[in-house]
Each structure stands twice: as C-alpha cells, then as structure tokens.
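Journal club prep — side note

Before the paper discussion, L.F. wants everyone to see what a predicted structure for a comparable chain looks like in token form. Sequence:
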Amino acid sequence: MSSSNAQLIHDYAEVVWNQGQTDQLGRFMHEDVRTYGLGGEPPLVGLAKLMEETARWRSMYSEATMNVVRTVAEEDRVAWQWQLLGTIADLRMLMPNMQQLAREVPQIRQISVDGMSISTIRDGKITEEVTQSNIAEFLKQIGYPIPRMPQDGSHAA
C-alpha cells in the first residue's frame, strides 16, 4: 500500500503542477481534504477551496515544474520533499523594485521554492496534507527585503 501511496504523490505533482491540470485535483484529493501550511493561514477544508487556491498559485507561473525529490511512505502517510521551479507569469506579483529589473533581466522571473509535505491517504486519495516551505526564500526572490538580525544576538529595534 505504501508504494502506491508514494506513486499517488508523484502522479499528483506531474498532473496538477507539471501539466497544469488543476481541474484534475479531485483525482488525488478527497472531497473533504484538509490542508495545512499554505502560507500560514487557517487550514483549507474541502476540495473546492483547495482547487481555487491551487489554481491561484499555479496561475502565478507561466511555467512550473514540481520535482518530487524524495518520498518516505509508511502505512497511510507519505512524507515528501519537493522543489517548485517556475517562471513568474504576472510581473505585478513582484515587488515594484523587482518589476523593472525582471523586464530587463528575464531570469529574475525564475523562482525556486523548496518544501516538505506529509500527506495522509485513505482509499487512494489524500485526506490531509501538512506543508512547510521556504517562504522566506520565495519572498526574497520576488523582491521582499529580508530583515537583518543584529550581529550581537540582541533583538532588532
């Protein structure tokens, strides 16, 4: 069972992210799926909400590739490490200081985000998913300034 669960993850990444078929999300996710960790907000509950959110994220990129780096499957859970590579489709998503630069230097529109997810699978579909990603690196790549910590370890003012 655990090997078919790991294959489900690979198929999900290929169809929904790499092929951009967000309308196929129901093949992989349960109707009452709960997802945690999508930007720190409360969990998304239900396939319809997840489809909206996934389509929104997927539409940010003119090209996107999700590489499943590694999976560890045990019973009804799969832990998986992933990397999302993409080309930003809408320059308005970038911070103003990055928009002009991205027009002049197209590779500025390329982003890479690493993350890990733990998916719980029942009856061949994901019922729950907890995701953590390197959102600070993503924000840095699209032009948000990263706060600097004082060298002496004290709190920033």
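L.F.'s comment for the group: Strands lie at 29-36, 44-45, 61-74, 77-88, 110-122, 125-133. Keep this in mind when we get to the figures.
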